[in-house]
Write a structure and sequence with these properties.
With 448 residues, this protein is of the alpha/beta class. Helices cover 39% and strands 13% of the residues. The chain binds phosphoenolpyruvate and cobalt (II) ion.
């Protein structure tokens, strides 16, 4: 799978976009050494299981739900927020699985989603030019030169937060919380009283009835691990290459390299250069991979990306995440899907309806409208329907919290509401109600 001279550090011979300029290389080397000695966060065998599950999705037999924060934060980190995020994702998955009748593969943007690409490397604060915020794994978001100084020790802090997050996620998904008989308890208070919440309650009641029916038929559900435990995987953008390299380990079973910072890694829209460091690095690790694909990608480039990342044609190895924007998707996506189809490389298609629909509201807040997000998803389904291909999955920025970051939705968040509870460290996320609302809309599309 790797190019002939691939090594965990061969990316260094290629141009790497979006890397901080580290002010002290000795500090960087020391953090890298410490990270390299720390235990892996995930195991190669788990990454292989995810590749297999995504392979099913690539073949139309499963659906991918990838969701979580735009950027995890060092300051907003608590058991409650992890639990609530998990609740929303589990709710969405149940809604999608119930309507589609195929397994939903659950992948969080969680336990490592810290590094952010920026449109400008600097920011002007009252006439002073300071470095841009690149995510808490690099610098702090406070608007001062000192806060923005890239600090390699933050990579260790990010590792520790990812480890604690993953530990809780594993406990929740393995220890009974994700048991299908708990389907009612995932409905949070502020959601339960809403229209979407009520709709969810009645679906949960149907699941209860189905479970009771099976019990009454003598099927022992207590022994059924698949009903009590959930396979939940982690993912993040593999942006900060020293961090990813330091957590790359050789699997003792197969001898292959895996980036053990997460199960799945993706390449962002700004770092997907064919001859760049990010493609080089990810081409050599055996995790399932994603690559964001914006409206400027040509069909030939999409095929080259898929070839470079999946030369052996393993189903589930590569997910192309389309993020076109509502106005562009109808024209931009079909040639890409057709070209990858013609190439014969198995590709899982997924839709990120968030990043092509961001704009700045009058009060200066970055936002997205629920209607544009939904419109992009609908067009995405239309494109796949007309080409006879499977609309494989969805990639969403959300939180379980009751934030006011995206406009619209059933509760109709208005521009004036954006300042009420805008808590994102980066891009605007759907709140719990908007996420569930979207899941119901997608479930209709899947049923159709
Ligand atoms: C993101 O997923 O947060 C992101 C920056 O996306 P993109 O690379 O598609 O712009
Ligand atoms: Co984002």
């Amino acid at each position: 799978m790797a190019s002939t001279q691939w090594t965990p550090d061969s990316w260094k011979s290629k141009p790497a976009e979006q890397q901080p300029v580290w002010p002290d290389m000795v500090e960087l080397e020391s953090a890298f050494k410490q990270l390299s000695a720390l235990p892996p966060l995930v195991f190669a065998g788990e990454a292989r299981l995810l590749t297999r599950a995504l392979g099913e999705a690539a073949q139309g037999k499963a659906f991918l739900l990838q969701a979580g924060d735009c950027a995890e934060s060092f300051s907003d980190f608590s058991a409650d927020s992890i639990r609530d995020k998990l609740k929303v994702i589990l709710q969405m998955a149940v809604v999608l699985q119930y309507s589609s009748g195929v397994p939903v593969v659950k992948v969080g943007r969680i336990a490592g989603q810290f590094a952010k690409p920026r449109s400008s490397p600097t920011e002007n604060v009252d006439g002073t030019i300071i470095e841009a915020f690149r995510g808490h794994i690099v610098n702090d978001d406070a608007r001062s030169a000192e806060a923005r100084r890239p600090d390699p020790a933050r990579m260790i802090a990010a590792y520790n937060q990812a480890a604690a997050t993953l530990n809780l996620v594993r406990a929740f998904t393995r220890g009974g919380f994700a048991d299908l008989s708990q389907v009612h308890t995932w409905n949070q208070q502020f959601v339960a009283t809403s229209q979407e919440g009520e709709r969810y309650e009645s679906l949960a009641a149907e699941i209860d009835r189905a479970l009771s029916f099976m019990r009454a038929s003598g099927i022992d559900l207590r022994g059924e691990a698949t009903l009590q435990q959930v396979d939940f995987y982690t993912s993040h953008e593999a942006l900060l290459l020293p961090y990813e390299e330091a957590l790359t380990r050789r699997d003792s079973l197969t001898g292959d390299y895996y980036d053990c910072s997460a199960h799945m890694l993706w390449i962002g829209e700004r770092t997907r250069q064919l001859d760049g460091a990010h493609l080089e690095f990810l081409s050599g690790v055996h995790n399932p991979l994603g690559c964001k694909i914006g409206p400027t990608v040509t069909p030939a480039e999409a095929v080259e990306i898929a070839e470079k990342l999946n030369p052996e044609g393993v189903p589930g190895r590569i997910t192309l995440i389309s993020r076109m924007g509502t106005d562009k998707i109808k024209d931009a996506l079909p040639p890409l899907v057709e070209a990858t189809q013609a190439s014969g490389i198995p590709v899982l298609w997924s839709c990120d309806p968030m990043h092509g629909n961001t704009f700045v509201a009058e009060n200066g807040r970055k936002t997205r409208h629920f209607d544009s997000i939904l419109a992009e998803v609908k067009s995405y389904f239309d494109v796949h329907e007309s080409l006879g291909t499977w609309p494989g999955g969805i990639h969403i920025e959300l939180t379980g919290d009751n934030v006011t970051e995206c406009l619209g939705g059933a509760e109709e968040i208005l521009p004036d509401h954006l300042d009420l509870r805008y808590e994102s460290a980066c891009d605007p996320r759907l709140n719990g109600r908007q996420s569930l609302d979207l899941a119901f809309e997608i479930s209709e599309l899947l049923r159709g």
